[in-house]
Amino acid sequence: AMAGRAELEAAVREQGVRKLKADKAPQHQISEELAKLLELKAQLGTNDGKPQFVLKTPKGTRDYNPKQMAIREKVFSTIINCFKRHGAETIDTPVFELKETLTGKYGEDSKLIYDLKDQGGELLSLRYGLTVPFARYLAMNKITNIKRYHIAKVYRRDNPAMTQGRYREFYQCDFDIAGQYDPMIPDAECLKIVHEILSELQLGEFLIKVNDRRVLDGMFEVCGVPADKFRTICSAVDKMDKMPWEDVKNEMVSEKGLAPETADKIGEYVQLNGRSELIDKLVQDAKLSQNKVAMEGLNDMKQLFVYLTLYGVEEKVLFDLSLARGLDYYTGVIYEVVLTQSQAATQTQQNEHSEQVSIGSVAAGGRYDGLVGMFDPKGRKVPCVGVSIGIERIFSIMEQRLEASDEKIRTTETQVLVATAQKNLLEERMKLVAELWKSGIKAEITYKKNPKLLNQLQYCEETGIPLVAIIGEQELKDGVVKLRVVSTREEVDVARENLIEEIEKRTCQS
User: So what does this thing catalyse (predicted)?
Assistant: First the structure.
């Protein structure tokens, strides 16, 4: 045992967490090394033979402190209010599904599905997203139309390195419209909703990229891609925002076995982007105009731009032929929303095609008309279109922004602290705070029999409580309460029966 111990101790010394910190390594790298160090130390145990317990969250997960939760709740309420404004209902589904429910729905990403240990009985997997459970729910309950949102945690067994904030457990925030409707009307509303949410959250400039699976498939067909390679070529095209065309072409040719001249033909199309004028140009295109599927997609795309103009959002929308979205189940329009910054702000990411440079996707979605049919025993189709808001990314942007500013963020909503300056008035404080609670006022007392007034006032300063209701012998005799405004220190005597009204009046605007 001693030899093993010496080896472990040497390994502990080699874990270069301090060096990484000194070199200002990225946070995720530091966290990873720290986790390894903690595990080594746990194996060592303490010298008195008691094993040491590792205090860490499981790999790929995190805790949220009250400050982070306050920001998070603000983001959620903005989003939910928008969904409700558009008449959506909400549902919930189990965190695990039957393994077979999830099998075969995610293409190349299936390896990230979290399978649970066989507990005897059903084989289960943790849900990977909220769309497949939604489709299962529709098929199971024979629902043909619904407009719903669902905000919940999903699970992905991302491995080995937890790169740039890829979590194994994170929130997804989905809005979907299921039902047989006229073309592009629900699709336009999904984009309108994203536009409203991003404008309201004030994350900065953003761009909504749209394309259509039928345009892509038609384009692959006229370029000579064999039908069985459509999906895998699609996921190669999907990487065009991350790497130059040459690398994408290389992947198509050397890894996926496409003829170089076919890849070149695809290249002529996927490097195009524009607005309505590009649609007109493609409708006239010698090859594409001969393709029925592509033409259906282009005509719908034209209609979509008309509706987006009516909704006043088209100036933020770009028709981009390189947008492919890796997921297998999309059948029509697809979109992705990226935050952009002007070229001036970012000299690091040179990009000759556009004056704006993307700094990451914050929402994505599209039409998936076949998914519900995959679950229905009779194969009945329910057309669906939806959008997923990248809540984690939005949240980390808001968090960074608040750290950069000196804005103090409140983690409680207490409106008033019931306080006393004299001894032996705990019972009176309790009576008064109970009165306030009964009227729906958010109120607190400090948990001491005879607290000092200064300490009570300091507590208000620290937590941002705006008002203090002070009672003493005299106030109780006169049937009043001294209401003190923490920020200005002004005090006013309020008749006890008017106290609720006065507090409400003073806190409703905050």
Answer: tRNA(His) + L-histidine + ATP = L-histidyl-tRNA(His) + AMP + diphosphate + H(+)
pLDDT at 31: 77
Angle in degrees, CA 426, 431, 433, rounded to 5: 90
Mark the binding-site residues, compressed into ranges: 156, 172, 176, 325, 329-330
84-114 per-position pLDDT tens digit: 999 999 999 999 999 999 987 776 678 889 9
Query: For 202-291, where are the alpha helices, taking DSSP H only?
Result: 213-223, 230-237, 245-250, 260-270, 276-283
Amino acid at 290: Q
Helices (H), 271-390: 276-283, 292-310, 371-375
pLDDT given at position 242: 84
Q: How far apart are CA 64 and CA 303, in angstroms?
A: 44
Q: Extract the annotated binding site for L-histidine.
A: 156, 172, 176, 325, 329-330
- 43-81 pLDDT, tens digit per residue, is 666 566 677 888 999 988 999 999 999 999 999 999 999
- Asked if omega into 160 is within 30° of 0 (cis), the reply is yes
Region for residue 49 given its phi and psi (left: phi exceeds 0; alpha: psi -120 to 50; beta: otherwise): left
Which pLDDT score, from 0 to 100, does residue 73 have?
Answer: 95
Query: Which residues, 6+ apart, have CB-to-CB distance to 54 below 8 Å?
Result: 38, 39, 41, 42
One DSSP character per residue, 122-167 reads --EEE-S-SHHHHHHHHHHTT---EEEEEEEEEE----SS--TT--
* CA–CA distance, 319 with 322 (Å, rounded to integer): 9
Those residues of the chain that have pLDDT short of 70 are: 1-6, 11-12, 14-15, 17, 43-49, 107-108, 160-165, 326-327, 342-359, 509-510
Main-chain phi, psi angles of 242, to 5 degrees: -105, -25
Torsion of CA 98, 104, 107, 111, to 10 degrees: 50
Residues with Cβ within 8 Å of residue 96, at least 6 apart in sequence: 116, 124, 125, 126, 127
Residue 106 Rama label (left phi>0; alpha psi -120 to 50; beta): alpha
CA atoms within 13 A on the CB side of 231: 11
